[in-house]
Design brief:
about 60 residues
Length: about 60
């Protein structure tokens, strides 16, 4: 597991250097939020938000299409 995490960290660090500064900062904030939610055992809330956004996106597509 440690090797996989090391690879993930390396990839994230490389991407953060590649992305525009505003995008990199937004990703940092999202990762920090996810880590905080995991610490508080509230990741299920994040999943709910993702599903909610997917539904809203589908509704927007159906209204414009």
């Amino acid at each position: 597991m440690e090797v996989w995490m090391d690879a993930l960290v390396e990839k994230l660090e490389a991407k953060l250097r590649e992305w525009r500064p505003d995008v990199a900062e937004q990703v940092r904030q999202y990762v920090a939020e996810i880590m905080d939610m995991a610490d508080r055992d509230t990741l299920d809330i994040l999943r709910s938000r993702v599903v909610e956004q997917e539904v809203l996106d589908l509704l927007d597509e159906s209204e414009s299409g």
